[in-house]
Amino acid sequence: MFHNLPKSLVGALALTVIGCAASAESWRGWNIHPAGYPNTVGMDRFAELVEEKTGGEITLQMFHGGTLGSQPDAVEQVRLGGLQVGNFNLGPIGPIAPAANVVSLPFIFKDIPHMFRVLDGEGGAAIAAGMAEKGLLPLAWFDAGARSFYNGSKPINTPADVEGMKIRVMNNDLFTGMIAELGGNPSPMAFAEVQQALKTGVVDGAENNWPSYESTGHYEVAGYYSLSQHLIIPECICVNADAFNALTPELQAAVTAAAQEAALLQRDLWVEREAASRETVEAAGVLVNEVADKAPFQAAMTPVYEAYFETNPDLRPLVELIQATE
Ligand code: BDP
């Protein structure tokens, strides 16, 4: 269609077309959780804010419920740029970014406020840098509460109660090590498969926070929830580093502000949902027990820490920094 036009005009037209394509970006985002879950609401808010704050120069389409695949696959997709955004738990990121794996050491955080104090300081900067190096940029942190054990046969009060039990964990050597040190059989498995595995007895138990225990229906097939609170792992709004770094400073600031605002909403919703989920499962007959003495669980984790230090001697100061953070 251009053959009758002067060459210079054809060039100008082509540049205009390319220019338009480059100035409006459409991003795609991954999330594993269902509608109404605090992370889902938070990610939808992030998408809205991205569009609003960038004046429509960036749009984000969110895919919820894990429809775009398992979390380890999605982490790879965001690293490689097949997807631009993910709401990831740092558990499955640890095997890729060793600095980010500190948060998956059992009992590393005293409680949620301690975790956020670390993330807001030097520790958080080191973790973010370790992730950025692997192509994943965390723009804001979500609350994911504390993870505790649940199973279908008995309350867990001591490490001896875990002995011989097959427990599903997320994909990470720290978690398989953790279960093995308690005398159990670790079974790494995708989140979407756990309900069926619990139901059919492929695994005896699993571990998660209140909202995921409830939203997945795991409580219907594993009715003993024992408050071991052995893992407190943050989650991120993560973006593909190249996509983010290619933006103008103004757009980078807009996307970062959108993530931080969405994260504040998620954190508020999280606290409400934890209470609501606990209420739902207790009303359904789940037996909840406090773990009166967590010290034996903590003591059993020494070899897990030792193995981590052996592979990552350079990360010992980061662990010590976290432990020394008030
Ligand atoms: C949930 C996390 C989700 C994980 C899931 C799991 O929010 O990212 O995939 O646990 O156990 O709490 O796999």
Protein traits:
single chain; 326 residues; alpha/beta; D-Maltodextrin-Binding Protein, domain 2; 2 domains; 5-stranded mixed β-sheet; 4-stranded mixed β-sheet; globular; binds beta-D-glucopyranuronic acid
Q: What does this protein structure show overall?
A:
- The chain has helices at 7-23, 38-53, 71-80, 112-119, 122-132, 159-162, 173-181, 194-200, 210-215, 241-245, 249-283, 295-299, 302-311, 316-324; strands at residues 25-30, 58-63, 85-89, 136-142, 147-151, 166-169, 185-188, 205-208, 224-231, 235-240, 287-290.
- The strands form 3 sheets. It has a 5-stranded mixed sheet, with helices on both faces. A 4-stranded mixed sheet has the order 8-5-9-11. It has a two-stranded parallel sheet with strand order 6-7.
- It has 326 residues and is of the alpha/beta class.
- Residues 1-5 and 8-22 have low confidence and may be disordered.
- Helix 2 (38-53) runs antiparallel to helix 11 (249-283).
- It has 2 domains: 25-143 and 234-276, D-Maltodextrin-Binding Protein, domain 2, CATH 3.40.190; 147-232 and 286-324, D-Maltodextrin-Binding Protein, domain 2 (3-Layer(aba) Sandwich), CATH 3.40.190.170.
- It has 14 helices and 11 strands.
- The structure holds beta-D-glucopyranuronic acid.
- Beta-D-glucopyranuronic acid binds at residues 32, 71, 89, 144, 170, 191, 208-209, 212, 235.
- Beta-D-glucopyranuronic acid is lined by residues 32, 71, 89, 144, 170, 191, 208-209, 212, 235.
Terminal CA distance: 69 Å
Label the overall shape: globular
On the 0 to 100 scale, the average pLDDT is 94
Unreliable spans are 1-5, 8-22
Order of helical and strand elements:
HEHEHEHHEEHEHEHEHEEHHEHHH
Percent of residues in beta strands? 15-25%
User: Going by CATH, what is the homologous superfamily of the largest domain?
Assistant: Bacterial extracellular solute-binding protein, family 7
Largest sheet: spatial strand order: 2-1-3-10-4
> What is the CATH topology classification name of the largest domain?
D-Maltodextrin-Binding Protein, domain 2
